[in-house]
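Z., the sequence and structure:
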Amino acid sequence: RETLIAFADQIRLSRELVRLDCSAPAPEPVEDFAVRHPDPVMLGDFLDRMEFRSLRNRVGDGKAPAKDGSAFAARPKPLTAPVISPRYAPQAVATDVEAQTFDPDRYVCVQTIDELDAWIQRAEEAGVVGFDTETSALSATHAGLCGVSLALGPNDACYVPLTHEHEPQAGGGGLDFGDAVDTREALTQIDKPVALARLKALLENPAVLKVGQNIKYDIAVMAQRGVTVAPYDDTMLISYVLEGGLHGHGMDELSRLHLGHEPIPFKSVCGTGKSQKSFRHVALQPATQYAAEDADVTLRLWRILKPRLAEQGLTTVYETLERGMPATLAAMERAGVRVDPVRLRSLSSEFGMKMVELEARAHELAGRPAHGRGP
C-alpha cells in the first residue's frame, strides 16, 4: 500500500505509456490499410533484386512493367483470395483420410504381449509408424517412461502402458503410519522389460520409419533405456523447414492449422496447479485416448507435410541440415560437457598476466594511473 501511494504518479505515467491511443491521427484513411494483393510487377522486381529465387518462382511472372514505370501507379485491388497457392498456405487443412474426424473411442490400450506383437507386425508391414512416448517429467534425462503410443493410420492407434499405477488414496484424516493396504486391483500391463525388448526391435528396425513430433525428446527417453530410435522423421522440423517463422510448430498448433482439430489438452488429463498429477497416475482409458491421439495427429501431419518438401524444393535442406539434429543433440545432452580443471587454471593464469600487461599499457597511454577494471 505504501509503495502504491509513494509511486502513484509513476504508476499513472506507466499506464499512459502502455495504453494504445485510439485517437492518434493516421497518415492514410483506415480503409487503405486493408490487406490487398501485392502488385506482381513491384513484388517481382523486389524479389529479383533480393535474389529470392524460390519465392520469385512461386509469385509467377506477372506483367512486364511499363517503360514509363506506370505499372507502379495503379492501386492494387482489395484482397479477396489467398495470395499464396492453397497448397502452400499454412492454414490449409487436410483432405482424404487425414481429414477424417478423430474418434478417440477407436484407440486401443495394448495390455498383452500378443496384442503388442500384432501391432508391431502391422507396423513392420506398413513401413512407417507414428511414435510418441508418455513420461512423468519434462526432462528426458530424469523422466520415468509411463508408456509408448503407436499409430498406423487415422484413428488406427494404440497406447502401450508400462508403469501406470493407481493414484495414491487421499488420507482419511487419521494418522498414517505407512502400513495402509491398497486393496485396489493392480492395473493390467505388459511386463516392462518384455515390452521394451519388443519395442526395441521395432524402433531400431531400419526398414520402419518412425515419425515423431519433437522426436529429440523421445530419442533421449528411449536412449536412457538402451533403445536407439532410427530411422526417423520429425514433423516439427519438417514444418519449420517449410514455413519457418510463419507460425509456431508445436503439435497442437500444427493440428489446428493442417487438420482443423484441437488435440486433447494435457491439463484435461492430468489437471493443473496443486491438483496436477503424474501421467503415471492417469487411468488407462483417458491415458490411451490422450497418448494415442498424439501419435495419430503426428502421423497425419507427416502425410500432409512431408510431400511438400519435394514440391517446394526443400528436401535437401531438411535432409542435410535438420533431420540429423535430434539424434545428435540428444547424444550431446547425454554425454554432457567435460571440464578440464587443469586447463582452466592455466587459462586463468594466462588471462591474469595479460590483464596486468594491458592495465600497465593503459596507464602509460593515459600518463597517469587509471582505473582499467571496467568493462
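The chain is about 45% helix and 10% strand. Residues 284-311 form the longest helix (28 residues).

Let me know what you think.
H.
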